[in-house]
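Appendix B. Chain record.
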Amino acid sequence: MAVRKRVLEVAYPNAAGIDVGAKSHFVAVPADRDETPVREFTSFTDDLNRLADWLQACAVDVVAMESTGVYWIPLYELLSAHGFVVHLVNARHVKNVSGRKSDVLDCQWLQQLMSYGLLSGAFRPEDAICHLRALSRQQQMLTRYQSRHVQHIQQKALAQMNVQLHNVISDITGETGLRIVRAILEGERDPAKLAALRHRGILASEEDIVRSLQGNWRDEHVFALRQAVTLYDAYTQALQDCEAAIAGQLDKLSRVTVDEPAAPKRGRRPSSQAHRLRLALHRALGVDLTRIDGIDVGTALKVLAKVGFDLSRFKSAKHFASWLGLCPGTKISGGKVLSGASKRTANRLAQALRMAAMTLRRSQSALGAYHRRMLGRLDKAKAITATAHKLARLIYTMITKGTAYVDQGQTYYEERHRERVVHHLHKKAASMGYTLVPITAA
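Structure tokens predicted for this chain:
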């Protein structure tokens, strides 16, 4: 019996492969383009320009490179500026190759796979969205650093002084907490005078606050508290500057005019800054994603910073959800499903949608009813993923169609679910030769 050998067609004859490193990059071009088809270039800017000139001299127009840390970003941006079509490929697609362990062989293997069209590039939005993405990630990093100093204030410095203020007020960085902490740093030690600084909205009584402010005021503990508050203030100022930069970039991305903003979701009392950010996101995306229950301003900002407003790279909502890693797995062998688990991913937007799904457990909306039904059928992690998948499909539909989201409510969803269940019961009974009769009609 003759064996038919599959011959791969060369899809990208002018492709090059680059193995990205921290100190140097190894580049491979087709063997007929240069006497030395593999060269090494350092990561300095002048060498990167020489790399681009060499690729142009070799008539290369498509480049494939692995995503290695952040070292690929300068090279990617430089090659894109020179007019190359750069594909940022997933390292998992090429790592399981026996014998391909050196940098030289890696770049040659990338060039060969790309020439046959076996590699697909990662999704990367336009430069304006990448600018917003960098600012958004900077904001998240600053927030993490600021939270560490908040923990230092209440769980280290105040705890060492046995000042139990964080046990009687919910937010140590709120108006009351910061008033008292700053008064302590200014030298006030009288618990009664410190407790008098509390805001009228604080539920704790003044007596409880007085008892919580009786501590030992050792100089080394006050010094640690002072430094923690100083660093907290520094990160607060940095966050304000970052938010101003994000607002400026959002103004540049505005595509529609929003004259009269829609009323916020019930129960929400957004701050003025959050309200301005919400309007800016509405102008940039063309729709108000915060109308979806569970999606707040921060999540909507991550949507815009991650994928932008042009989702044409994704053929359908299914492809979009699959890219996020929110679809069931299809690990099948021999006709048997080996695993249906979703693929592991570090996608920040997928993580944000999972966090949004977790907030729907007690929601009285249709999404809340759906999430509770998933919790009744699946374990918690799978139910959260299923709800995040539904949120992803809603976001895709709203952005691509430009339609607003209208919540039908919990009652509408449960009634529709009941109608589907009854329909399937009638269908199953008819297939078995029976007829379902309502109890009221019996």
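Further analysis of this model is presented in Appendix C.
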